[in-house]
Amino acid sequence: MTLPDPEKNPAWYGEFWIKYPLNQMLYPVDYCYLFKANSDFCVILNRVSLKFFGEGGNSAQSSRKTVAGFVGDLTAWYFSLPDPLTPKRIVFPSQIKLQ
User: Fold this and answer.
1) What is the pLDDT of residues 1-38, one digit of tens each?
2) Which CA distances in Å does 70 have to 30, 45, 84, 98?
3) CA dihedral in degrees (2, 84, 81, 10; nearest 10)?
4) The pTM is what?
5) CA distances, 51 to each of 1, 27, 40, 47, 57 (Å)
6) How far is CA 87 from CA 15, 17, 72, 78, 79, in A?
């Protein structure tokens, strides 16, 4: 099962709004993008851990092809981050941690 696309269904994720003390305007934190990106990252990490540390704790032999596949997955995940999570737009600690 995959999570809904934040672009098409942002209400599924909910939103957090912040208000700075000297301004009356509310600002969204774009939580839907952060949650989806974190979840996708955790799926990749879970696949890595199952491959190398699954089946009773025995580590699997790592082949270059296997490692390159995971590096490719992580690279694709990073470059598919939506605009609110790009290095030029992040401002919150949770977004910085994601980077």
Assistant:
1) 789 999 999 999 999 999 999 999 999 999 999 999 99
2) 27, 9, 25, 18
3) 10
4) 0.83
5) 20, 41, 17, 6, 10
6) 21, 21, 20, 11, 11
How confident is the model over 26-71, as pLDDT tens digits? Answer: 999 999 999 999 999 999 999 999 888 876 655 556 688 888 999 9
CA–CA separation, 83 and 72 (whole Å): 20
The domain ranges of the chain are 10-98
Written as one string, the DSSP assignment of 64-80 is HHHHHHHHHHHHHHHHT
Separation between Cα atoms, residue 35 and residue 41, nearest integer Å: 10
CB-based contact 10:4 (threshold 8 Å): no
**Distance (Å, rounded) from C-alpha 47 to C-alpha 20?**
40
